[in-house]
Predict the 3D structure of the following.
Amino acid sequence: MKNRKRLHPSNTGEENEIRTENTDHCSVPSWTGAQAIAHLLAAVVEMRIGGEAELVPGNNATIFQAMDQGRGDIDVHPNVRLPNQESFTKKYVDEAGSVVLSANPYQGNHGFCVSKEFGEANNITDIADLRRPDVAALKDVQIAWSKSFGERLPLIAEFFERFSLTADDVSSFAFEISGNGREPSEVAREWVEANPERVDAWLGL
């Protein structure tokens, strides 16, 4: 069966999702780094797995609800930031069990704000505390996908499980897109072509 993937970025400040028909559906937020990751996932699906990808807008609530429904409208969210989106992961990953969260977080350089409850629970009283290794470990960026998607397209779900990036990777993507004004898809395809060994590892080759 032909894999056809639709990714969803937004220019309106909303979160973004990857939706697909007869293929993997991935979601991605609308800020620059998230746009880069969405396009990178799409590039791998198109260039190495043989699928098609299209980006479309959405927000976190819509994305997680669609993944929960498991109908294939939206299958994947490639930029789940914790603890920011913990309310969604608790509801759909921990409680409903309808969404799968990758065990392999990727890294990014960015600023953080935390809730009063999070700060009290983790003894955070100063911005410097956010650098503590025990606190940094709580701030993951991961991929999530509909449980039904993993059953329908296990090959792409396995790719998502293996997917990982360094902070330098993400910063480089963001700089090329925001700093140099390049198209995210161009940056993503260029990176895939320049890093075949890393992509092979994601694909289990």
